[in-house]
């Protein structure tokens, strides 16, 4: 079992919605992370080819109530993206906008 497979098995499978956009200058990732601030998220570039986004959604505080619908995620999460070769991974920038994490990675100049 690979390191990544072994580590992923310890994380809950949360449906983290993400968009990946590309323009002439960069790749942008927009990830929905409601209820989480930037300090609760870890960004890592693994071996220069994989963007890994991980963190922890806060635990549910209404445990003594009867649930009818439970759609908001709780617990640990991890999402990975295999990056193309034309990125400058060391120049990664991230910022928060309205409950979303935006990660921009510039492209290498041709």
From TrEMBL:
Keywords, in A-Z order: Stress response
Membrane-spanning parts: none
Entries under Gene3D superfamilies matching the protein: 2.60.40.790
PROSITE patterns: SHSP
4Fe-4S listed as a keyword: no
Domain SHSP: 9-110
Pfam families membership: HSP20
Matches recorded under InterPro entries: A-crystallin/Hsp20_dom, HSP20-like_chaperone, Small_HSP
Family classification: Belongs to the small heat shock protein (HSP20) family.
Protein name as catalogued: SHSP domain-containing protein
């Amino acid at each position: 079992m690979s390191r990544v497979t072994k580590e992923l098995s310890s994380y809950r499978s949360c449906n983290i919605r993400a968009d990946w956009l590309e323009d002439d200058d960069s790749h942008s990732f927009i990830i929905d992370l409601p209820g989480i601030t930037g300090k609760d998220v870890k960004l890592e570039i693994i071996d220069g080819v994989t963007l890994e986004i991980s963190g922890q959604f806060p635990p549910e505080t209404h445990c003594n109530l009867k649930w009818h619908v439970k759609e908001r995620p709780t617990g640990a999460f991890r999402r990975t993206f295999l990056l193309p070769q034309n990125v400058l991974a060391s120049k990664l920038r991230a910022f928060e906008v309205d409950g979303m994490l935006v990660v921009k990675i510039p492209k290498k100049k041709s």
